[in-house]
Amino acid sequence: MNSDSTFTVLDKEAKSPIEVLPRDEGREHLLAIADLLAKVMDTTVRVPGTSWYIGLDPLLGLIPGIGDALANLIGTVILGLGARLQVPRIVLARMSLNLLINGTVGAVPIFGDLFSVWFRSHARNAALLREAAMKPDRETHADWFYVGGIIGGTVGLLLLAIALMIWLVYKLLLLVSSG
Q1: What is the C-alpha R_g of the chain?
Q2: Residues 6 or more apart from 146 whose CB is under 8 A from it?
Q3: How far apart are alpha carbons 10 and 15 in whole angstroms?
Q4: 29-46 mean pLDDT
Q5: Integer distance in angstroms from the first to the last C-alpha of the chain?
Q6: CB neighbours of 135 closer than 8 A, spacing ≥ 6?
Q7: Extended beta strands in 41-80, E state
């Protein structure tokens, strides 16, 4: 049999196909690229005197306006590798959310760069990619929960911000009308 093909084993009692991935050099090469890119972006250099590592992502974030966008653009290469390896769509959604979180918080000067050092979205995405690529039949309930939580939290924060703005406008109107 060919080592580049996907094998299907049929369980005679359950009659359900079980997908088994053979060791594939092409797949391993793409995963190695993702790992290398994650290391360059998140953990290239050790900060002297600490156990912290920084990469290109927080350094690019120091460039006003374009740095975080450039770092996230580079990070989409890992996302593209995930699409090429045909990982489940929910995993791609989770990887996209990691980039979105890093890019959004990273846009805040100084704090965003420190967040990028801690969050390490590229390393998270490379780990998600490796796990999903090696186990195509893996359960994705945790991924659905993560994506749902992020979306729910975002909607909650948006509603809270709207309520705060309405309250502030109301208080401002009371102040203006009483004066």
Answers
A1: 22
A2: 94, 97
A3: 6
A4: 95
A5: 86
A6: none
A7: 45-46, 53-54
Q: Mean pLDDT check: name the lowest of 53-57, 85-89, 128-132, 172-176.
A: 85-89
- Could you tell me the residue ranges of all domains in the chain? 23-138, 146-179
* 17 beta partners: 10
- Reference 57, options 128, 22, 7, 107; nearest CA is 107
pLDDT of residue 139: 61
pLDDT tens profile 129-144: 999 988 766 666 777 7
Q: Which helix H or strand E contains 96, and what residues bound it?
A: helix 89-106
> In terms of pLDDT, which residue wins out, 166 or 107?
166
Residues 3-17 have a mean pLDDT of 47
91's CB contacts (< 8 A; 6+ apart) are: 82, 128, 129, 132, 140, 143
The residue among 130, 90, 106, 132 whose CA lies nearest residue 41 is 106
C-alpha to C-alpha distance for 44 and 25, rounded to whole angstroms: 25
**Tokens 């080592």, located at residue:** 3
- Going through 49-107 in order, the beta strands assigned E by DSSP cover 53-54
